[in-house]
Amino acid sequence: MSGIEIAKKVWEREDVQFIAHCGVVLALLVFLRPMFTRSTPAAIYEGPNILWGMLTNELKALFPGGGRPSSQLLFLLVPTALILLARVRIRWDQWENGKALRNLLMTLLIILAWAGATFDYNIYLNHGHFLDRLLLIGLVALCWRFPLAVPFAVKWIHVMLKESYVPIPADDFDFRAVHEFLVVFSVFVWVSSSKNFKSEHFLLVGIGCWASYYYAAGVAKVFYGPDWSWLLENHLSNLSVGGHVRGWLGFLSHETFLAINRVARLSDRALAAFTLVFELGALVCFFVNRRLAQVWFALAILFNFGIFALTGICFWKWIVTNIAFLVFASRGGAPIYDRMCRYLLVVWFGILVVYFSLGRTYFFPQAGVAWYDTRMVEDYTIRAIGESGKDYLVSPSFLTPMEMHFVQGRLCYASNERTVTSIYGTTGSHGVLTRLEELEKPEDALKLLQRGGNCHNAQQDKRFEDFFVRYFGNLNARGRPHRWLSWIGRPTHLWVQPQGELYDMQEPVNQIELWREVVVHHGDRLHRLEKKRVKEIKIPRAEPTAIP
Length: 548
Hints:
By secondary structure, this protein is α+β, with helices and mostly antiparallel strands. Helices cover 54% and strands 9% of the residues. The chain has helices at 3-11, 14-36, 42-45, 50-60, 74-85, 98-117, 130-143, 150-161, 173-191, 199-222, 229-232, 236-246, 254-265, 268-285, 290-311, 316-330, 334-340, 344-355, 403-408, 430-437, 444-450, 458-478, 485-488, and strands at 372-373, 376-386, 391-394, 418-419, 426-427, 453-454, 509-522, 525-538. A hairpin with a 2-residue loop joins strand 7 (509-522) and strand 8 (525-538). The relative contact order is 0.12.
C-alpha cells in the first residue's frame, strides 16, 4: 500500500477529520484572537462617539501619509464580505442542534452586552456614549437571527467593556474567558461557510478555551514558591479578612466577621485541596464524557460562588456562563456534547489542546493566578473634603465605572510608602507570608514593612492626580447625570460596603486625600496601625472638561 493510499485511509477516519477541523479553528485563532482583543486607543473614548472615532482612525490607514494605526474594525469586513459575495447563507439551523447552540451563545452575548451597555455615566470622560451603547444592544439583537453578526457584536463588546479602563488600566480577568469563548465562535462562524464544520468542532475548541483558564490557574498554584507551599502553608481565610478590611460585609462588626472567619480557617487546607483538584481536573474532566463534564460545570459554579462568599469577589459572568454550559450539556446541547466525546483520539486531542495552551498561542489564559494570602493589609482609603470643611469617606464603589481599581486598593504607587503586600493583603513572597504568620505582636509587622520596597511610580502617580482633578471637577460642575443607569446596571465584580459617612455629592469637593493604614489580623483581632495621610489633591472649581 502506497503512502498516498495510507494517508487517504487515515483521512477517511471520522476522528481524524474531527481533529483536522478543530485544528483549522485553532490555527485561525492564533491570528484572529488578538484582533478581537486589541486595545482601543484611549483618545477615541474621549470623543462623544466611539464608533465615529474608530472609523476615522481606520480610514487613516487607507491613505498615504495618514500614519499606520492598527486596524480595529476592518478585519471584520473581509471574511464577512467574502461570505456574502459567495452567496453563502450561514444560519443557526445549518448546525445540528443549532437552537441549543444559539441559546448558549445568546446567553453569553447578553450578559456581556448587559455589562457593556449599562455601566454608569462616565464622569471622568463626561460622555454617556449612548449611541455606542445602543449599537451594542442592536448588534446582539441581530445575532439571534444572523450568526454573521456575532463577530461584530463580540468585537464591540470588548470596545465597550474597555471604556471602564480609561485612564487607569485594570485586569480584565472578570470577563476575558467569557469573551474569548465568543471569539472562538466568531472564528467558527466564518469557517462555517464550508458546510463540513459542525457544532461539535466548535464545542471542543470552545470548551478547551474555557478549561484552559481553570487549568492555568491550577498549574500556577502547584509551582508557586517552595514545593506545594500554596496548598500546605497558605491560608485562604486571610484573603477573606483582607476583603473585609476593604469593605466586604462591612455592615458586620469586626468581632462577628472574625468569629465566622475562625470557623472558615479550619477549612483552609480542604478548600485549597478542592481548588487544586478542580482546577487541575479541568485538563481532563470537560472532555472524557458529558456526565463528568456536567459535574465539573456544577463544581465550577460552586467554586466561583465560594470565592464570592469568602471575599466579595463576584465572578458573576463566569457563574452565569457555567450555568449556561450546564443547561446546554443537560438539555438541548447534550447530543453535541456526546458527539464531541465520542472518539477517544478526539478526547486526547482536547486534553492536549488545554495542556499546551499555557504557551498562550491560540488561547490566552490568565497567567500567574497564584499568590499567598497574608494577615496584613496596607489599606488605602480616599477621603473628600467638602467646601464646608467636612470630611467624607469616598466609597471606592462611588468612582464608577472604573471602581474595580479603587476597590482593590493597591494605591501605593501614588505615595512614598513602603510595601510588602498587594491587593487584599496578598503577596508573592513566601518569606513575607511566613513572617506575618509568626508575628509575636502586631507592631512587628511595621518592622517588616520598613524593609519593603517603595512602589511609588511617577507616571502612575500623575495619572492618579489627573484622574481625581478631572473626575471631581466634572462632578462639582454638574453632578452625576443619568443616575437611572445604576438601576439597570450590571452587578459589580468586587462588592464592598464600607462604613462611615460616605460622600454622595452632599456638597462640592475642594480636596481629595489619600490615607494609608496598616491593618494586621493578630490574636483574633484587627489591629489598625500607623494611619496617616499620604497625599492631598486640590480640586479646582472648573467647568466640565468634555461636552456630553
